[in-house]
Structure formats: C-alpha cells, structure tokens
Amino acid sequence: AADPDWWRTAVVYQVYPRSFADSDGDGIGDLGGLLDRLPYLARLGVDAIWLSPFYPSPLADGGYDISDYRDVDPRLGTLADFDQVVATAHRLGIKIIVDIVPNHTSDQHPWFQEALASPAGSPARDRYIFRDGTGHDGATPPSNWVSHFGGPAWERITEPDGTPGQWYCHLFAKEQPDLNWENPEVRAYFKDTLRFWADRGVDGFRIDVAHSLAKDLSHPLRDQPNLDRMLPLDGTDPLYDREEVHTIYQEWREVFNEYDPPRMAVAETWSPANERTYLYARPTELGQVFDFSLLKSPWGRDRFVAVIDQAIAGHAGAGGGLTWVLSSHDVPRHASRLALPEGTDPDDWLITDGRHPVLDTPLGLDRARAATLMMLALPGSPYLYQGEELGLPEVPDIPREALQDPVWYRTNHTLKGRDGARVPLPWTRTGTSFGFGDGGAWLPQPESFGRLSVEAQDGIPGSTLEMYRHALRLRRDHPGLRGSDFAWADAPAHCLAFDRGPGFRCLVNLSGVPCPLPGGAEVLICSGPLTDGLLPPDHTAWLSTS
Ligand code: TEU
C-alpha cells in the first residue's frame, strides 16, 4: 500500500520547466523535454519532482501569472503530455508536485478581464481587491502597501466609460492582480482546481506565497506598519501571516484527504522562520512549510547550528514535516552565494545588482557541495533546485537586453532580478545551447556551462553530479538516514557534527583549518578529497562510526 507519509523524508527536485529541457526547439523548455529526462532524475535518485508553473501564462512573472489554472501552456505542451509525465514518473517511482498560485491571477485571466469591463461594486470586481483612491480625484492609492517587485502595490484602471477609475491591489507585478479570499467563489474555485490536478494523479501541491491570502480588508484599509521590514512576525500586519489564513488551509486539508493516499502540500512563506511559520505545516493544514533559514544563512558554524536547532524544535512543536532548502528559482545559486564576503547583507545578495559581485569560485563550489551534504544528512525533506546537482553558479552577467524578470523592470533597471538562477540547463559539453534544445535557449548560457554539463560529469568520480547520486543512494540505503534520530555530537572547534542513529555521523568543517576525523571512522562520502587523512576546510564528510 502507498505510504501516506512518503513526503516527510522525500528528496524533492524542483523543475523550472522553461529552463529544464526543450523538446521542440523553440528555446523554451517544455513537458516533452521533461519526459525525455525523467530517467535522468530517476538515476539521480530523487523521490519527487516539484514542477514550477506550466499553465497558460503571458509570462509577466515566469509563469507565476496564470491565465488558466486547469490547462498547460501551449508552448510547454498539452494536458495529454502532462498525463504522460505523471504516468511515466510514477512508473519510475517519482511523485509529482504541482505549483498552486492562489494569491493572484494573471491580468489576462478571464476573471480579471471581466472585472475591468464591469462597474465598480460589481460581483466581478469583488473577486479581486478594487478600491477607490483617496485625495484629490481619487488619484492617491488606497493604502501604503508596496509590491515585492518595487513601487506601490496599487494600479489605477480606466473605467469602461473612459474615466480614471478605481485601483486594484497587486503584491507582485501589476500583471498579477491579487484575489479577494473573502469571496466564496474564489475559495470554491481553488478547491476545485486542487481536485482537478489531484484527479489527474498529482501527489502534492506547492502553495505560492501561502501567507498572503487572508488580508485585512476592513474599511478604511490599514497601512502596513513597517515598510522596511518585509514581513511581520506577530500576525498584526494587514497583508501577511494573518490568523484567518489558516482556515483556508484547514478547508484544503479536507480536499487533500478526499484522496488515497491523501495529497501532500508545502507552503511557501517567504518570511523569517519563526514559531508562526511552522503552523502552516500542522497536520490539519498543509503538512509542510519551506524552511528558508538555511538558504538565508551565511556560512558559519554557529549560524548553521542555530538554524538546525530552530527548525527541528519548531517543526516538532507544530507536528509538521521538516524541510530544507539551499536554492530555488528565486535566489542566486548557492554555489555562488556561499562564497560572498562575510558581512554581505542578505537583502543585497538576494537580488544582486552588481554591488556585491556574485562569484564563480572554487570556494563557492566547495561550500555548496559541503552544505548540500550537510542538508542531505539532516532529518526531513530536502528540496533541490535543478542544476545544483551540476554545481551551476549564478550567472551574474546576462546582457541587459536579455533579462526578463519583472524585478528588472519594476526597479527601473537597478536590480537585475532572478534570471541568473534560471539559465537553461546544460546537458552536453558542446552544441547548440549545450543540449538544452535545438533552437537555442531563452536566456544566454555562459561558456562554463559546457564543462558543468551532465555529459561532462556523468560517470566522472568526484564530479558534483556523481556526489549527488552517491549521497542520494546512501540516503535511501543507510538505516540511520532513513530514521528520524538526530543528536549533536562533539566536534573540533568551529566544526559541526551530528549523529543520525548509532553509527552514522555527519562532520562539517566550518573552521579555516583541516579537521581530524574521529578515531576508527570510515568515510562513506566526502564533498572532496581528504588531505593527509584530514577533512579540509569547507568540506563535509559522512562517517560510519560503528
Ligand atoms: O515568491 C514569493 C516571494 O515572496 C518572492 O517575491 C520572493 O520574495 C523573491 O522572489 C525573493 O527574491 C513566489 C515565487 O517563488 C516567485 O517566483 C514569484 O515571483 C512570486 O511568488 C509571485 O508569484
């Protein structure tokens, strides 16, 4: 029988479909490309794939602006292709998780088009958040709310009769109007959307900006109290992490439980992890929430210890599944990020603008491999991002005219945005777009991608790809790693060590000097070669200690 708790320890691999593999030569990755590469993912050893949006979309935000929640973008394939991906993945033992984007639709969604064509106060407008402006002629936005992509979170429309009209709320690009989650039709539509995909066989859902759906819409709208702090920590903000949001996920849990096994879900809440974050992962709600604290943490022993302690304690309190993340389509790749100079402000490197150059250095790759082995040895469910198994660096120098992320436009070209982590994957050493597809790639790939390609690393001992394959194999086979035991162990100064059951130890060298291994330990895997029997700085080893 299917294990209903499979997701608690699953290794999930994020596919950003446009950048994964292109089967039809239009320069955009697609479901056919994914289908062709499923055997690669099976061999890598992942348990599940999280597919970023593949739905019809004008691509104002890389697909996170959806114009039809129950179809496939024609550039990426058809529903039949999707069904084939699910069937083939399942045959290979891989689960499929799809992305649900409930905070906002595309401005091209029929609902928003209907709202624009309907009068103020109409039921069509009520599916979104339309308000009159304030001040002279209503020319001032209804509140101080700001967009994540820069500027006010309000856009003024022209009414059907040609006069300047109401404003609508958009927490992201203006092409992404926010839905009104107090509207019963909106609530019903998303529950049916979950069923639509669950009926097609998907195993779970990743919920985009899960903490923003329930807004305080009481009149007059309340300003956000503190605009320099991106998100509040105590539930008092009018937009984020409000108590009422949990009723939505309690309703969704009932939908997930209509299926056997129940569908899993993971919340994305882009906020500092605190006790409130873990509430989304309660078994009565989504079950998992991304813990981004590892991703946000600079390199350092004390930071890593604090992050791991807090995550384990926080999740234990709420009863949800633990998660770990080092990279995603939203942040500079960790092979570059982890080499940034000490003291770099995370808010600066999250979306770098060149003031803090993102580096492609041996140090970055060493640390990325070490951090990955540390993460894969922790209890819970790690989320990998496509290309990290190749050690791909952030691409910091995409020509300006090629950049597509809305962050780039919305910040008046001062922040380059997230395209540097979204460059299409290299599959072969040479050739058009390094084997991504026959028609080039929608973002230019750097020359270094050839030697980082799958072909260049396949079967090469010590390559990053082979390290991932080996680690994932050990994770499946080793009894300690399969269990839930976790205990800190003694380690030399500025190093970190933890045991997973008797006989398994993970040792991370965060000091600047080589570190001795415990007596009698046998190395199961190491992020790089030992030097004179010592673990070099910026390396991790898994040890058999029994
Ligand atoms: O991201 C949510 C989010 O809060 C991001 O704006 C995040 O702060 C930023 O990317 C950090 O650099 C999700 C998706 O992952 C992202 O790709 C979308 O752009 C966003 O939602 C809107 O749907």
From TrEMBL:
Concerning SUPFAM superfamilies, the annotation shows: (Trans)glycosidases
Q: Which residues form the Glycosyl hydrolase family 13 catalytic domain?
A: 14-422
InterPro entries (alphabetical)? GH (IPR017853), GH13_cat_dom (IPR006047), O16G_dom_2 (IPR045857)
Where does this protein have coiled-coil stretches?
none
Write the record's keywords in alphabetical order, separated by commas.
Glycoprotein, Glycosidase, Hydrolase
| Flavoprotein recorded as keyword | no
Could you mention a single GO BP entry for this protein? Answer: oligosaccharide catabolic process
SMART domains in the cross-refs:
Aamy
Q: What is this protein called?
A: Glycosidase
> Which organism is this entry from?
Kocuria dechangensis
Upper lineage is:
Bacteria, Bacillati, Actinomycetota, Actinomycetes, Micrococcales
